[in-house]
Specification:
Blueprint lengths: L21 H7 L4 H4 L3 E4 L7 H7 L3 E6 L6 H19 L14 H21 L4 E3 L12 E7 L11 H14 E8 L12 H10 L3 E6 L10 E6 L1
Parallel strand pairs: 1-2, 1-4, 2-3, 4-5
Antiparallel strand pairs: 5-7, 6-7
């Protein structure tokens, strides 16, 4: 996912452009392909994930948005290649912070990250209209434009630099553009600690008329990052 500052003038060097595969998304969000049929879906923020590319090839209706998309696909591909190498080097030093079951080793992780990057950037070349540049917490979509919204590795993860008000404003915007449900993964920060304002946000959502459920998922790479929030309107 792209690491976001609140500016459309974000320098490419300050974006981390790494993504997950379509299969990872199904596991992270505990989804079956059957559940995706007939739904209009937004991936927000999508970064270098291949969910939009593979989803549309599989007959689903998926749109991606991210601040990174203000940059060209070629620049993003080159940045992604650098970031994958940098991440692999870093992981050599902190392997104990991760569970090596979904990925057997760092080479296996690199293979998946490269596959996601190439699927994403190749799709951007052919179907650029699917990749919408945005700057959260504001989104350029109509009210209830999407049936389902998936948000991975952004909200809650950067609680050291994105405050509670930003999370609240972003959630309200996600609710505005979503008709049925939002799924957010994971529920921890970069250190693997549960987001400290999560209960406060859940209370706010419940008081706003939403149904909120915390669900364990069949995916854990970062230790403790194994649950998601399902918000139903």
């Amino acid at each position: 996912m792209s690491e976001v500052e609140q500016s459309t003038k974000l320098d490419l060097e300050r974006i981390v452009f790494i993504g997950r595969t379509f299969e990872e998304y199904l596991n992270m969000f505990s989804l079956s392909e059957k559940e995706l049929h007939g739904k209009k879906i937004l991936d927000c923020p999508a970064g270098a994930c291949s969910f939009t590319a593979i989803g549309n090839k599989s007959g689903f209706d998926v749109t991606a948005c991210d601040i990174a998309y203000y940059h060209s696909g070629e620049d993003l591909k080159n940045k992604g290649l650098q970031d994958i190498e940098h991440t692999a080097e870093h992981l050599q030093k902190v392997q104990s912070n991760y569970k090596w079951a979904y990925f057997k080793d760092i080479e296996g992780l690199k293979h998946n990250r490269l596959r996601a990057l190439y699927d994403c950037t190749n799709d951007m070349k052919e179907f650029n209209e699917r990749y919408i540049p945005v700057t959260l917490p504001s989104l350029p979509f109509e009210n209830e434009e999407f049936d389902m919204l998936l948000s991975a590795h952004f909200l809650f993860m950067y609680s050291d630099r994105l405050d509670y008000q930003f999370h609240l404003d972003t959630l309200n915007e996600l609710l505005r553009i979503t008709k049925e449900e939002i799924r957010i993964f994971p529920l921890v920060d970069l250190e693997g600690k549960r987001y400290k304002h999560l209960e406060q946000l859940i209370s706010y959502l419940n008081n706003s008329g939403c149904t909120v459920e915390e669900v364990n998922v069949p995916y854990e790479f970062q230790i403790n990052a194994n649950s998601m929030l399902i918000i139903k309107k």
